[in-house]
Amino acid sequence: MLIFAFTFFYVYIAFEPHQQAEQLRQQGGFIPGIRPGMPTEKYFAKTLSRITVVGATFLASVAVVPSILMALWNINKFPYYGTTLLIAVGVSLQTMQQIDSQLMMRNYEGFLKK
Predict the structure, then answer these.
(1) Is 56 helix (H, G, I), strand (E, B) or coil?
(2) N or C: which end of the chain has fewer CB within 10 A?
(3) Cβ–Cβ under 8 Å, residues 114 and 104
(4) 8 within 8 A of 52, measured Cβ to Cβ
(5) pTM, full prediction
(6) Which of 33, 53, 34 is nearest to 42 (CA)?
(7) CA–CA dist 39, 23 (Å, integer)
């Protein structure tokens, strides 16, 4: 439940629907069929809620299902659970991003060619 709650908390801090709708309006953009301003903000909030429910459910299942399966099958020797996997992937992605940005600052092509 905490993973689910923190996922919603983080997404609503990172992606603010009011700010995104205002920025879209200032740049002259629009979503077809939706008026600029408050209707766009409501559309963003509704879409964000729907996407976040799916993402939070996935994250919670990745964190909890390995623990449940190991408890059911009585596996005690494998110390890595779902949260360890989430942390390891997050740290490795952040490290790769920092390395790539440092190389870009020094005018290299990048760590990974795209």
Answers:
(1) helix
(2) C
(3) no
(4) yes
(5) 0.67
(6) 34
(7) 14
- Nearest Cα to 7, choosing from 43, 71, 61? 61
> Who's near 15: CB < 8 A, 6+ residues apart?
48
Tokens of residue 45, six digits: 């909030």
**Structure tokens that stand for 44 in this block:** 């963003």
Alpha-carbon distance of 105 to 6, in angstroms, equals 33
How far apart, in Å, are the Cα atoms of 94 and each of 20, 45, 67, 98? 24, 27, 25, 6
DSSP assignment of 23-49: HHHHTT--BTTB-TTHHHHHHHHHHHH
Residue 110: what residue type?
Answer: G
Closest CA to 101 of 112, 90, 91, 92: 112
